[in-house]
Amino acid sequence: MTLSFAPDSELPYVYDGVATDAAPNRACCYTIDEGYLLPTLLSAFQLRSALPAKIADVVVFCFGSPSDITRAAMGLCVAKGVDFRLVPVTALDGNPMICARFFLPRLLGREYRDVLYVDGDTQVAGSLEPLLTHPTVEGRVLAVPDPMAVMIANADGPWPARRAYFRGIGLHDGAHERYFNSGVMRFQLSDWDAVSRDCLDLCRRNGADYEFRDQDALNLVVGERCDLVSFRWNFPPFFMNFNAQETIHPRLYHFMSNPRPWQGAFLPWGRAWHKPYAALAASHPDLAPTLRSLPLHRYGRYVVQQHVKRYRESRIWGAAGVRTRIDALEASAPV
Prior knowledge:
The chain has 335 residues and is of the alpha/beta class. The protein has a single domain, classed as Alpha-Beta Complex (Spore Coat Polysaccharide Biosynthesis Protein SpsA, Chain A), CATH 3.90.550. Helices cover 41% and strands 16% of the residues. The chain has 13 helices and eleven strands.
């Protein structure tokens, strides 16, 4: 099997000169570099396994140059029914990897109309079909509230400062409780082109001032055109510290901060969420180098840190008032 690049305005790859199948017209997309390869492949394989092929294609865009690792990834993706596309870094026009999702209109071309973007630091625990088939409205984005949106109205702790920060970058008070997480988003590709251009412009001009660079830009650009959906589709694993999974029934877990489960069997996920990464690395040792091991001192620090976080978060986030806010968001979610 051969790999080649096409011009930036076209699809960036061909497999032995054979064109890809344009049906269905939905795509679940990841945008990564080689450093995130194995965790992303696990998520993509889980998503593909749980989703009927007629509903959507699963596409992994990996930015970089051909290597033994990317060739191994391509072969494995072919076997798993996942579309792996290697894209030259120059396609980012000098922007950082975090902005790669803004280039999906160029990368996907005209073959798809409906896109679900998924971050690579995720695991899929059930079918995403309800999210993918929920009716969309032209010009609008489906996304999940960021955990900050649950706590942003609090009078104490870090939240007054966070509200002041949001105001400072141009997010008015009414937008704070609608602030969404950019790790899982569904949109019509025709809408994403304009959103992406505006976000890239904001990041170039003001990115140094943004604490959550691309996510802040997205919230500023999309604003009230976002329909908030259930945490089921973008579940923060620290919610496990107060057993929120028992009522939300997550289908996609998003490991938003360090440590992450491929780094070890830390709380709150334990061995159950670490083992799939270890198994994939063991069965495909040519991909294992993309899982960087932790120094012993960092591993020990994370063990202690995660025990402390479980104690604190079970009391803060598990408090009745906070659970009521989460329940209200869930009750109002269209899917």
